[in-house]
Amino acid sequence: QVQLVESGGGLVQAGGSLRLSCTASGRIINIPTMGWYRQAPGKQRELVATSTSGGSTNYADSVKGRFTISRDNAKNTVYLEMNSLKPEDTAVYYCNADVRSGYFSGPVRYWGQGTQVTVSS
User: Fold this and answer.
1) Which of 26, 81, 82, 90 is the right S-S partner for 2, CB 3.0 to 4.6 Å?
2) What is the phi/psi pair of residue 93, to 5°?
3) How far, in Å, CA of 78 to CA of 7, rounded?
4) Distance (Å, rounded) from C-alpha 25 to C-alpha 88?
5) Which tens digits make up the pLDDT trace of 38-55?
6) What element of type H or E holds 115?
7) What burial class does residue 67 get, using C-beta atoms within 10 Å of its C-beta: 0-12 exposed, 13-18 middle, 19+ buried?
8) For residues 110 and 34, is the Cβ–Cβ distance under 8 A?
């Protein structure tokens, strides 16, 4: 089994910054992809950013130029640096990881418990 633990959410004023962290633990051979999603009240969960173990990244258009995703593969940790935050960034942020736990099995997606980010105007 694999667990994802997130940290770093909170309350910040518009224009401010926050850094989220998410660490995977358990039976892990490798993690091809890690990412961040968010869900605002009354809305569907949406992609924020993803990062592959090879260094490729992908961002939602709404966060390009403001958010940066990074990884520490040795620590099985993914980060989300969020700058120039806007009230519309308010949401619960979830990390996920596609984890390979066996040498002959495909990756399985796991989710963190979510961390609240609130941006006041």
Assistant:
1) 26
2) -100, 130
3) 11
4) 31
5) 999 999 999 999 999 999
6) strand 115-120
7) buried
8) no
